[in-house]
Amino acid sequence: MTDPLIPATLAFRDDGTPFSPAYDDIYHSAVGALAQAHYVFVAGNGLPRRWRERRTFTIVETGFGIGGNFLATWAAWRDDPARPERLHFVSTEKHPFAQQDLKAVHARIVADATIAPLARQLADAWPMLVPGMHRLEFEGGRVTLTLAFGDASELLPKLWLRADAFYLDGFSPAKNPDLWSLPVFKSLARLASDGATFATYTCAGHVKRSLEQAGFNWRKVDGFGWKREMLAGEFAPRWRVRRHEPPSPLAVSERHAIVIGAGLAGCALTERLAARGWRISLIDRNEAAAREASGNPAGVFHPLISRDDSVASRITRAGFLYALRRWSALEQLGHSFARSTDGLLHLAVDDDEASALTGAIASLGYPAEFVTPASLADAQALAHAPLANGGWFYPHGGSLDPAALCAAQCEAAGDLLTRHFGMQASRIERAGNRWHVFDTAGRSIASAPVVIVANACDAARIAGLQHAPTRIIRGQLTLLPARIACGLRVPLIGDGYAVPIDDDITLTGATYELDDADPSLRAAGHTENLQRLARMMPAIEPSLETLDASALDGRVAFRCVTSDRLPMAGALADEATAARDATALRGAQLLDLPRSEGLYGAFSYGSRGLVWASLAAELIASQIEGEPCPLERDLADSIDPARYLLRALRHGELG
Question: For 193-202, 540-549, 618-627, which range has the lowest pLDDT when averaged over its residues?
Fold first, then answer.
């Protein structure tokens, strides 16, 4: 189970220097945080010279602290006319500050008029204090900060990126020895690009020895402030120190991708790739985007709480938090998609479930802004309606119009998007260094170096995958008349769900019918939805009994799921090559599997498309561009489309 985060304690020494009571050490030299950051870390890594004329540049830091190193680096990037197009800064932090405390620290250390606005932007974007990785974007996405909240010794092995520079920062080796250990430096060596540099304020002997063992050369240079010496150096191993090379950008002749499927998955990909300057050809068999499952009148979004903080919970938490940031960015650009703002209630099925999950919330240390237990009285006050049980309240959960979100994402892509709607993609074919997509008549729709299949249960067929098992689940929604549940103030989920939408209409559902492809509305489906709603809101049961189920309006859509109920997101495997080399791959890892060059998948999102689509799109865009992965590596592996192929190889089912 993930350990709960313990926030940093705000404290200062008499001279105003931020201080950690837990480690009995200061966050920066008393001479000045930003001056130290620029001298030790920015200049110590040869910046800005080393990043000039680069398309991307990635820095990894071992302790974020008060963010002084990031702010100094961001300011140096802004001041450099020859700066890289995209700057990635990835940092771990075991004890992050609360937002208000971070603002208080910055108020004391940031006097530079050019950096003060950056500090305000950082504090305003500061994420909730929950474990895992949080990706923040600044400068229109050109400066990306990926914060990994948790123990560095556990998180660094889970990073997947190619680092150009390392900021070895943190409390002193005497106060925090684990951060300066050989395992930590080996984790960094796994990420280092050829010639990657490092800098640190310490010259401790065991630090130098561990750096050498991990493949880094070091040299002493003049220190900062009252420190006489510090270390700088490069990654230059004398022997092979890793099994796999860190990720690199896909080599393409042009930055043009075809996305098949214009639902939540495909439109999120369109927005994320266009934000990086890619041209997108978006193909869909319907005449407009979001006409299938993504065309439901409303969808709910919320985290997933489990007692053991399962993989599904961790992925959903990461996706939920990332989606909130992406949606806010779209809204700031003037887009609207009817996103509710009063939170969402998750009702417990019974007292046992309420007790178990309330205990889990407490043991995992979630902040109240993420989730809070709600008694029956509290829940009824929040919902403004009588309810059967209490449960949990997600202040940032809610509902929105999925089709309007898809439209906003397409609009954000602007002229980089070409729509090919009303065209059925039937098959794809690789010729040379390009993929070609053909319709049912064999005519070419589009060609590009990259294809991403994002069309639910048809994705595996088009991509020619035999080891990507998916199934459809029929879901029937019911629209209740205005007089039913019209006072409901927030969306409810539990045994079913109820979402208030325009004109006092309430959307409820949905049925869950495996392998049922019937698109017609059925009275039995409406009846089932009403029964579930009555279990959540028993006071409205008499009103429900007066309804004629056969006369109710609604909608049928089809979810796509895998057996493990996790999405498929990432580079697709070359199954033919894997079958040929099955014997050699019997003990393989996912990184060992051959991949189809330029072919990716984003499908099988089930009922969690709203919370998974944006993060999955960022993951795929990062893979294509060779950028830092926005997820811990074990989580990215759990949604890798090749995971079923790997199981088949390990079980001896191929070759």
Answer: 540-549
Q: Strand, coil or helix: what is 346? A: strand
Report pLDDT for 316.
98
Tokens of 367: 């902040």
Between CA 489 and CA 504 the distance in angstroms is 10
Find all residues with CB under 8 Å of 201, minimum gap 6, and list them: 29, 36, 40, 169, 223, 224, 227, 230
Please state, in angstroms and rounded to a whole number, the distance separating the CA atoms of residues 262 and 290: 6
DSSP code, position 57: E
Q: Which of 482, 471, 561, 474 is nearest to 509 (CA)?
A: 474
Residue 281 contacts residue 254 (beta carbons within 8 Å)? no
Average pLDDT rounded to a whole number, residues 385-401: 96
Contact 189, 241 (CB under 8 A): yes
Q: What are the sequence ranges of the domains in the chain?
A: 19-235, 256-292+403-470+564-650
Q: What tokens does 519 get?
A: 């698109």
Average pLDDT estimate for 315-337 = 97
Q: Which of 522, 490, 486, 526 is nearest to 503 (CA)?
A: 486
pLDDT value of residue 605? 97
Written as one string, the DSSP assignment of 161-203 is: --EEEEE--SS-TTT-GGGGSHHHHHHHHTTEEEEEEEEES--
For residues 61 and 628, the answer to whether their CB atoms sit within 8 Å is no
Please give the pLDDT value at position 594.
97
Give yes or no for a cis peptide into 459 (omega within 30° of 0): no
What is the residue-averaged pLDDT of the chain? Answer: 95
Tokens of residue 547, six digits: 């309804």
**CATH number attached to the domain at 19-235:** 3.40.50.150
Give the E-state strand segments of 249-326 in sequence order. Answer: 256-260, 279-284, 299-301
Residues 6+ apart with CB under 8 A from 59: 45, 73, 87, 88, 89, 90, 163, 164, 165, 166, 167
1 has pLDDT over 70: no
* Fold match flag (19-235 vs 256-292+403-470+564-650): no
In this prediction, residue 2 has a pLDDT band, given cuts at 50, 70 and 90, of confident
Residue by residue, DSSP assigns 414-435 as GGGEEEEET----EEEEETTEE
Q: Using CA atoms, how far apart are residues 36 and 72, in angstroms rounded to an integer?
A: 9
For 437-490, what is each residue's pLDDT tens digit? Answer: 999 999 999 999 999 999 999 999 999 999 999 999 999 999 998 878 778 999
Query: pLDDT tens-digit profile of 210-251?
Result: 999 999 999 999 999 878 999 999 999 988 878 899 999 999
Q: Which CATH architecture has domain 256-292+403-470+564-650?
A: 3-Layer(bba) Sandwich (3.50)
Q: Which residues, 6+ apart, have CB-to-CB distance to 332 below 8 Å? A: none
pTM of the model: 0.97
